Amino acid sequence: MSSHTVPTVEASEPTAYRMLIGGEWVEAADGRTLEVITPIDRHRVIATTPRAGAEDVDRAVAAARRAQRGWAALPFTERQGALLRIADDLEDAAEDLAALTALDTGNALRTQARPEALLLASAFRYFAGLAGELKGVTLPSGTDALSLTRRVPVGVVAGILPWNSPLMIAAFKLPAALVSGNAMILKAAEDAPTTILELARVCERHLPPGVLGVLTGYGPEVGQALVEHRGVDKVSFTGSTATGSGVAAAAGERLAHVSLELGGKSPCIVFPDSDTDEVVEQVLLATRFARQGQSCTSGSRLFLHESVHDSFLDRLVDRVSQLVVGDPREEATDIGCIINQRQWDRVQGYVDDALATDGIRVAYDGRPALTVGEPGFYHAPMILSQVDNGWRIAREEIFGPVLSVIPWREEDEVVAMANDSHYGLAAFVFARDLGMALRTAQRVESGWVQVNQGGGQQVGQSYGGMKASGQGREFSLEGMLEGFTQIQQINVRLT
Ligand code: NDP
Q1: Which pLDDT score is estimated for 394?
Q2: Where in the sequence is the active site (predicted)?
């Protein structure tokens, strides 16, 4: 990865990171720092990072503005070449980045962290391939006129990242922004900043200084200052709906561009013809239990048709009981750790609240069988059945390994329940009858619907939410064009 000391649990000293501004690795202007613990061991500070403030934002924005014009002026093949070289280096570093992801997010190496690191490298390769698609059009205006459009970059883009899968979410934003000629300033999550800083080390070798900046620190300090800065042309935010709403208001107030990837409470609908082991495996992927449920696209509301309800649930419980909750660095582990105490308490609060509800059934509670715990933030998966779609656990995003199972009878009824949510990020439909599956998929109000599969994220797909789950799309050609470029029209009189 790089020659400096990379954090480990065993290291006697935390790694002292700096942040990237204008091609230099710097401290915060006022010298303040913050400590990063690992969710594997709450007592272990694995790293320190600068605690950036408004002055650092000024510096980063000035550097980005200086760099952006030259970067945008390059022939597209040069930006393409840079991204391809970054992709090569990221592939070489993938195993190290995966190990660091396991350490700073708690995401298990085999099931999550490694795929996230590999996805990042593929994203750089994919967007490098799109460099030539940043094309304009010409109007057939006759021989006396030339009427053409250009796709020009938005300018300086702030990318605000959450802690749950930092590399994957950076992959949604960074290569698309860069290849289309923008400069990007990433704000890493305070709880999981280290992989983003390592990503920046790889990228800076191939980019002009200032084209990529990385700031670390607290959201209400450095994040807010970035969002409000007049030199930031666009804010691309991923995080909670509450924070995103404030970010959109602050950016909107000064008429900056904004895109938002927010939370979800996604439905997962199983039709009567799909009571099979294979579908159980896919539903298991959809639960995102393997990321401790800390996924905005988790299929956290499982709608089981009443005719297969008991049989499907039995199979699912059997399968979930085989999952290994353990040290995220171990290959054998399926489910790692929750990010921090606050999130662990939040998940537990939802569980306690649900268990006190009349009529709820506990289909599976893995807590008694847990073999790991203190000092890590481990939480076993839970499946709660006979849930009412109106209950709090079926309406609010828990962001933990808790699945609500809801029975249904009629197709219209299940579609209505699926859509009875202020969220609209993802959805999953399982039916062997493809007519039924596709009809339902089209009726569900979600930005991303998967049919007969539960994982399946791929580079090039449009990613983003409807309703309170967000605005704008990322990760695709359309997302790149709409999110990171704007059209300039040029009309020329030729006579
Ligand atoms: P937050 O919304 O709290 O934070 C997201 C990012 O925004 C962090 O970097 C945070 O900084 C920063 N931030 C906080 N306050 C401000 C502010 N006032 N101005 C600018 N930036 C700010 O979410 P979490 O990090 O807690 O992530 C979990 C949530 O994110 C989940 O609830 C989930 O719904 C959502 N999410 C959505 C995804 C999607 O693609 N739709 C993907 C992943 C998560 P700091 O690190 O200091 O808190």
Answers
A1: 98
A2: 261
- pTM metric for this prediction: 0.97
**Residue pLDDT, tens place only, 296-331:** 999 999 999 999 999 999 999 999 999 999 999 999
Residue 37's SS3 state is: strand
For residues 479 and 173, what is the distance between their CA atoms, to the nearest angstrom?
10
* Cβ burial, residue 193 (10 Å; 0-12/13-18/19+): buried
CA distance 136 to 76: 13
| Helices and strands: H and E segment counts in the chain | 14, 23
Ligand 1 centroid distance, CA of 157 (Å): 17
Intervals of CATH 3.40.605.10 along the chain: 15-262
**Cα dihedral sign for 56, 59, 63, 65?**
positive
Can you name the CATH fold of 267-458?
Aldehyde Dehydrogenase; Chain A, domain 2 (3.40.309)
- pLDDT score recorded for residue 79: 98
Quick one: which atom of ligand 1 is closest to the CA of 191?
A: 46
Domain 15-262 falls in which CATH fold?
Aldehyde Dehydrogenase; Chain A, domain 1 (3.40.605)
Tell me which residues of the chain have a pLDDT lower than 70: 1-3
Closest atom of ligand 1 to 172 CA is 40
CA of 221 to the centre of ligand 1 (A): 13
Q: Give yes or no for residue 397 CB within 6 A of ligand 1.
A: yes
Residue ranges matching CATH 3.40.309.10 in the chain: 267-458
Helix axes 76-105, 166-179, angle to 10 degrees: 170
Query: Does ligand 1 lie within 6 Å of residue 225's CB atom?
Result: no
Amino acid in position 135:
K
Question: What is the structure's pLDDT at 173?
Answer: 98
Helix (H, G, I), strand (E, B) or coil at 211: coil
Residue with CA at minimum distance from ligand 1 atom 46? 189
The reply to whether 410 belongs to the active site is no
CA atoms within 13 A on the CB side of 319: 19
Q: How far apart are CA 437 and CA 449, in angstroms?
A: 11
pLDDT of residue 1: 56
Please choose, from the candidates 283, 322, 274, the residue with its C-alpha nearest in 3D space to the C-alpha of residue 301.
283
pLDDT in tens, 367-423: 999 999 999 999 999 999 999 999 999 999 999 999 999 999 999 999 999 999 999
